[in-house]
User: Which sequence fits this backbone?
């Protein structure tokens, strides 16, 4: 059963051809699926579905070919980013400073480090408003 259902995805083959990331080799024992789910969640849940009804966003995506291309570019960029820096999207935002004090990173700051700028740029370049949430992402 797959609990994640998104209108545009990338395949392992696309990821290998476009980015040189071989999921089967780099993320064995089922970790390739977890990696891909993290990429999809970051782009969709962290950017596209942040605002607006999911059904409406999906209709917009399916009606515009430029949206499909923009999302694929964003997914590929996010995959490269997660492959190089890891997934910080699950972090709490709490860190320890050098003097042993707790510091809290704002949700907006944490989100800005979770989503790579190249993925955001790809989505912003789309002809349809995939990102507008009334705030800067």
Assistant:
């Amino acid at each position: 059963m797959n609990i994640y259902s998104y209108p545009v995805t990338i395949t392992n083959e696309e990821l290998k051809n476009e980015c040189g990331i071989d999921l089967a080799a780099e993320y064995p024992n089922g970790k390739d699926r977890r990696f891909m789910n993290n990429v999809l969640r970051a782009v969709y849940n962290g950017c596209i579905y942040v605002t607006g009804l999911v059904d409406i966003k999906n209709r917009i995506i399916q009606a515009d070919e430029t949206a499909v291309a923009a999302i694929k570019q964003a997914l590929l960029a996010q995959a490269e980013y997660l492959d190089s820096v890891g997934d910080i999207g699950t972090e709490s935002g709490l860190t320890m400073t050098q003097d042993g004090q707790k510091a809290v990173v704002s949700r907006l700051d944490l989100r800005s480090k979770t989503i790579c700028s190249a993925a955001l740029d790809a989505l912003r370049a789309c002809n349809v408003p995939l990102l507008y949430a009334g705030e800067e992402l």
